[in-house]
Design a protein that fits this description.
Strand content: under 5%
Structural class: mainly alpha
Order of helices and strands: HHHHHHHHHH
Shape: elongated
Distance between the termini: 5 Å
Helix content: over 70%
Oligomer: single chain
Number of helices: 10
Largest sheet: none
Mean pLDDT: 77
């Protein structure tokens, strides 16, 4: 199981660019809304200030240059921190106000109205930021489900109806496990530490039981799948896959820098957790196919299965 689980992880790294692609698409779509929103807000701010001050003509180019200069002065050695700073309403308010005051010598007499105009522009930009974050989140979620589909197709295909069976089993067993742990802790407070270990064991048993019902029932014995040895192997495999993914993420951060490494880390860890979640099914499926080869066994709904030796 351990060897197969690690092999599954490296095989599924071929889907590395799937979550990256959807995230990049969400990023581009978000920028396509955010950038025009920022330009419009700044242009309208300049127009409002010119209207407020009357005889004073605000140079839009000079205002934009002042804001760009403020952006350049941020600490870009940490790009993520700098980006978070730009998106903060406090920073936007302060920057716009300072730039306007530097351009308008007599603008102090209109300070209240100018600050209100700045606040309105910041709200407009904040709306663009919300849309930007929405598209980024959409890219992350869409990438997760698309990658999950591809990883499942690679590791352990199953008929569509088994999705509902798996959801039902998972819900019932998880609820029963949670209920038992809560009752145990209410009866004996120090059991919180024991509950952690028990939770790990029960989670492993739940994963193997679910995998047995989906892929092994009638093909292999229950005891050959659901036992303490396999639970231990399942968690050891999960630990090793997680360690490998962390090492790959650190290498990505060193080679690509903070921003590029962060995007690659998201993809690497996403695949790692998906593989960890499906390793039990992959193991039971291959075990069942070893006992009952696909050419002799009836396949679910024409499902295409690959013969893989079980450990």
């Amino acid at each position: 199981m351990i060897k197969k689980g690690i092999k599954n992880y490296f095989i599924n790294l071929k889907h590395l660019f799937t979550p990256l692609g959807t995230l990049a698409l969400g990023f581009v779509l978000g920028l396509s809304v955010l950038i025009p929103c920022i330009f419009t807000a700044v242009r309208e701010l300049a127009a409002r200030v010119a209207e407020i001050t009357g005889s004073v003509n605000v140079n839009f180019s000079a205002l934009f240059d002042c804001i760009a200069d403020a952006v350049q002065k941020l600490d870009w050695s940490d790009p993520m921190r700098a980006v978070r700073q730009i998106f903060r309403a406090e920073w936007l308010n302060q920057t716009f106000t300072d730039c306007l005051h530097s351009l308008l010598g007599e603008g102090e007499t209109y300070i209240m109205q100018i600050e209100q105009a700045v606040a309105d522009s910041v709200q407009q930009i904040a709306a663009g930021v919300v849309v930007f974050i929405f598209f980024i989140s959409l890219g992350l979620v869409g990438g997760y489900w698309l990658t999950k589909f591809l990883v499942r197709r690679t590791m352990a295909r199953r008929a569509w109806w088994k999705f509902f069976v798996a959801s039902l089993i998972d819900s019932v067993l998880s609820a029963a496990m949670l209920f038992a742990i809560v009752i145990f802790q209410s009866l004996w407070a120090p059991s919180v530490f024991i509950s952690f270990v028990v939770s790990l064991l029960l989670t492993g048993f739940v994963a193997l039981m679910e995998a047995y019902v989906l892929h092994g029932k009638g093909k292999v014995s229950f005891s050959a799948v659901v036992n303490f040895k396999n639970v231990g192997k399942l968690w050891l495999c999960a630990f090793l896959v997680f360690v490998i993914s962390v090492v790959l993420s650190l290498v990505a951060l060193v080679l690509l820098g903070t921003l590029g490494g962060l995007f690659l880390t998201i993809s690497v860890l996403e695949i790692a957790f998906l593989v960890i979640g499906m390793n039990a099914e992959s193991y039971v499926k291959s075990l069942a196919e070893t006992v009952n080869p696909p050419e002799n066994a009836q396949q679910d709904n024409g499902e295409c299965a690959e013969t893989q030796p079980a450990e």
